[in-house]
Amino acid sequence: MFLLTLKSEQMKLHKSPIWIPFFAIPCISAFMGTFNYLANKDILTKEWYSLWTQHTIFYCYFFLPVLIGIYCAYLCRLENINNNWNSILTSPVSIKSIYFSKFITVMKMLLFTQIFEGILFYISGKFAGFTTKIPSEMFLWLLLGFCAGAAIVSVQLTISLVIKSFSVPIGISLLGGFLGVAATAKGVGLYFPYSLFSIGMCANNPSAAAGYSISAFVISCVLFVIIFSKLGIIALEPNNNW
């Protein structure tokens, strides 16, 4: 039954307008990052690493949180309109299956987004004239960004389940990105989910250690997923009138 629920969620993505922001937002982020790098080549002298900082400073704090907010809001949109939750919650499907089918579907979209971002970064580097090989650790940073994304997905999915609106959760994701900048600057990024992207992807200083161990980073991501997934499942309880 879970696989059927998961399949039904993924069918929502076929011929869906969600693919417009999927392609457009990373391209805008890559364009801004590349333009900023080319405009400051005199002080950004580490080629791939310098370009990485310019790409990820926009991508991690603003564009990707908003994109995840769009993914989650869209998957909940059909249920949030016309009281479709009533029919879904009375079907012979467990609440956990409903929640995690949405969670996995968004994570699949996030995986594609990270792969697309990696491709755009490589293309941008070649456009900038780099002849050296792309640093291998950047693949690890994309993977850690995917792990951080799981925390944001759990937060945004729960918000979209509680707030019956399409635009408000997206606005919250944008606000979360701005607050993530402040949390990272204060050194408390591990304790704020929207800061985990920049930590995992080494956005601030890729040529130096992030200041956190990978194990502490992963534990933080897992805890956020557990806590907010539990809240999301509670929010779906038929007797809950959030």
Please describe what this structure looks like:
By secondary structure, the chain is mostly helical. It has nine helices and no strands. The chain is elongated. The model has no long low-confidence stretch (mean pLDDT 89).
What is the structure about, briefly put?
With 242 residues, this protein is mainly α.
How would you describe this structure in keywords?
elongated; 242 residues; 9 helices; mainly alpha; 0% strand
Return Rg in Å.
19 Å
Give me the secondary-structure category.
mainly alpha
Main sheet: strands, sense, barrel:
none
State the shape: elongated
- Tell me the series of helices and strands, N- to C-terminal: HHHHHHHHH
Average pLDDT taken over every residue: 89
| Oligomeric nature of the chains | single chain
**Which residues sit in consecutive blocks of at least 5 with pLDDT less than 50?**
none
Write the layout of secondary structure elements.
Layout: H1 2-11, H2 19-39, H3 48-80, H4 85-89, H5 95-127, H6 137-162, H7 167-185, H8 196-200, H9 214-235
Helix pairs in contact: 1-5, 2-3, 2-5, 3-5, 3-6, 3-7, 5-6, 6-9
